[in-house]
Write a structure and sequence with these properties.
The chain contains two helices and two strands; from the N terminus they run E-E-H-H. Strand 1 and strand 2 form a beta hairpin. The chain starts with a strand and ends with a helix.
């Protein structure tokens, strides 16, 4: 809510014009924006993690199926800690 005085020819306040706004929608949109930015940051972090993981895996050479399973198990355990 805002109020603006209107002065007469003598410099006296003759009336005040009041403007009232419902900012419920503005607050809802602001909240959505904050959530959206947080989600964007989360996605960015996850993409960065996947990129680093992919780069790491590109350097690993595994020849046997047994070692491949052991490596996958180790990576699953590492990602939960």
């Amino acid at each position: 809510m805002t109020g603006n005085p209107v002065f007469d020819e003598y410099g006296e306040i003759s009336l005040i014009v009041v403007n009232e706004r419902d900012i419920t929608e503005l607050n809802r949109l602001r909240s959505e924006l904050v959530k959206s930015r947080a989600l964007t940051q989360e996605y960015h972090s996850e993409l960065f993690h996947l990129y680093k993981e992919k780069s790491f895996f590109a350097e690993v050479i595994i020849r046997s199926e047994l070692m491949h399973r052991a490596f996958n198990t180790a990576m699953k355990v590492a990602s939960t800690t």
